[in-house]
Amino acid sequence: MLKAIIFDMDGVIVDTEYTEFMLQKEFIEKLKQHNRPITLEQQSETVGKSLNDIPEIIKKLSGTSLSLQQIRQQYRDFFHQIFSQVDFVSIFRQEIKNIIYFAKQNNIKLAVASSSPLTHIENILSTCGIKQDFDLIVSGEMFSASKPNPEIYQYTLNTLQVSAQNAIAIEDSYYGILAAKKAGLTVIAYEEKRMIVDQSQADYIAPDMNAILQLITQQNLLT
Description:
By secondary structure, the protein is α/β, with parallel strands linked by helices. It is 42% helix and 12% strand. It is built from 9 helices and 6 strands, in the order βαααααβαβαβαββα. This is HAD family phosphatase.
């Protein structure tokens, strides 16, 4: 029986993953110390990675002589700057409210398990008016290893006191899907076609929140 639905946030609840991805390209270009183009496939390696892990990929792609610590600081400043200007409500996937309503009606617990910083998660959920609907909010910064390490999902399940067999994860990135699968969850991927993201490990792929809700109610995921 379904007892919990666990959401990733960026790229699932809000379309921030693509927003960051597009602006991130400019950041990499400014650091780049070679003339080779950065392909969509190469940059897509950052999708679903934590704020702490992305700078390692940026250093590799840009070939910059800056230290990893310098890139991390610059990227954190960049991250906070771009998201201080984003209208989160405009990229909020409003149809999640249908899933929230369904969960409340069926006594299903709700959680967010995101690689983003906790302040970022809570700010977005509060701005979109749904923070109070979640039983648990978990940030990847609480753990030494980010997704695809399954620890964030294992912790979330343990805290909710729900077994993996009775929970569903809603993810979009390859790393997030892999983390949830390693933790033993059924995974529904929120379909992403603008970036190169391998979602083949998910149990299901759905184009929007309403389709995700249909999967939950029609594919025997409740039993």
